[in-house]
Predict the structure.
Amino acid sequence: DSGVTQTPKHLITATGQRVTLRCSPRSGDLSVYWYQQSLDQGLQFLIHYYNGEERAKGNILERFSAQQFPDLHSELNLSSLELGDSALYFCASSEYSGANVLTFGAGSRLTVL
Amino acid sequence: SQQGEEDPQALSIQEGENATMNCSYKTSINNLQWYRQNSGRGLVHLILIRSNEREKHSGRLRVTLDTSKKSSSLLITASRAADTASYFCATAQGAGGGADGLTFGKGTHLIIQP
C-alpha cells in the first residue's frame, strides 16, 4: 500500500458519458499529479495541483477537468467519453511542488464501450 | 511528448544474470528517476540521480547518468523472478522545476526466466 488511494479501481461506461475519478494523496503530501497510461501513448502527464491550486497542465483534453479540495483529495472529471479515453488513470502525490519523487496510487482502469 | 526513451523495449534474461536498460532524453534536466511497474499496477520509485551526480547505488541497482550524452543506464544485478516488470525512466526538466510533472519514457519490459 503506497498510501495514495484511488477509487474506483475499475470503471466501465459508455461513450458520451461522464465519470469522476477520486484520489486521496499520501498523508502530508500537498501535490497531486494525474497521469493517463495507454498502450499507444505511454504515461502522459495531465495536470498538477499543489495545496488546492493548479500548478501545471500537460496533455489534458478540454473534456477533462480536475480540482483539489481543501482536504487535499483530488478529483479528475472526464466527460463526453470516447473509446480512445479507455486507459489507466494514475494519481501520484509528493510533499512539495517540484522535481520530487512521486508516490503513485494503484490506478483507475477506465473502459469506454 | 516523451522526454525519455528507454532501450531496449523488451529484455528477457535468465535468473541470476544482470539486466541493463538505457534511457535517453532530450532537454536539460533537474534529476532523473527510475520507476518500476508490475503489470497493471502503480509505479514504484526505485532511485533518483541528480544532474550533478554520475553514479548511484541502491541495493542491487546501479544507475549512471551522462549529462553530456543525455543518457542514463539502470543495471540490476543478480536478477530474480520478482524483478519481472516494466522499468521507466522519468525526468524533471530544469526550467519547469518539476511543476510540470515528471516526463516518462515508454519503458523497458523486463522478463526474468526462472
